[in-house]
Amino acid sequence: MKRWLGKAETALGNHSDRLNAINIFPVADGDTGTNLYLTVRAAYRALQDASPADAVDVGAVLARAGQAAMEQAKGNSGTLFSVFLCAAAEPLAGHARLTSSLLAAALNRAQIRAWSALSDPVPGTMLSVMEAAGRAAAAVDAGQNGNDSNHALGLVLDAAVEAALEAVVRTEGQLDALQAAHVVDAGGVGMLLILDCLRSAVLGEELRSELLDGLHGYDLQDPHIHTDMPDDDGVEVMCTISLSPLDAATLRLRLDELGDSVIMSQVGPSADAEGLYRWRVHVHVPAPAPALAVIRSLGDPADVSVSELALPRDPSGEVSAEGR
User: If we measure between CA atoms, which residue out of 158, 266, 264 comes closest to residue 205?
Assistant: First the structure.
């Protein structure tokens, strides 16, 4: 698991510029690659000082990484990957070894949780890629009749990555904005890279660089497509807050009324002494004040961040370092 997240950090760092270049949904802010990279980096770094007791529990290792990712998640893509990681850890808890059945269960749990974290999930995004990988893994595992060999695990990993690639290609036709720009979804490509890193880490094989060949908008000579899109007004607000389930439902409803891209996911599995759960909150709104007022009316938020959706761009069309 450490090797997986380390490979994913490196791969996303290498590909962040191209992922940023095709990032036009849900807003054309050109930061999906950067957001995924920073979120995965947080997950990987959390494992550098993992305790010996956790080292033999796959679920505990991923839960630790997932919580760190959730606390430091960046943007829509980073938040959804954090949800994916936390959920994937749950079926693996108490197990010292990954098997095809455990992986299939983890991918299925993760994609369901990611879909449910968004108030208004849509196909054609990294959600579709997660779902395709989970379904393919489950189908192959069902045909293994409980075989827990490394060979069976390899078959499931191969199927998950192939299905993820097919889902990435389909994204272009699933969203009008992507079809008009003739590109695939940036978050979907990032998720494909992450899954291929998992396959590489588990099987001890090289990353399949050919997976990205021919993806529309992804060639090095292709322009930063998002720079030709109109600037998106508004801001992205993120925070962590402790709420009861009822207050969390209320907050989601009120944020849905104020903006879009609402993502709420529980951080950690259990409530505190007062029966409150910690939640990671993400929303795009025209202005931050109303959203922050709603959030603060229900609790005391921590790690509050407000970012402009329209990022500064330099004359060459590249996203500026300050914008990232």
Answer: 158
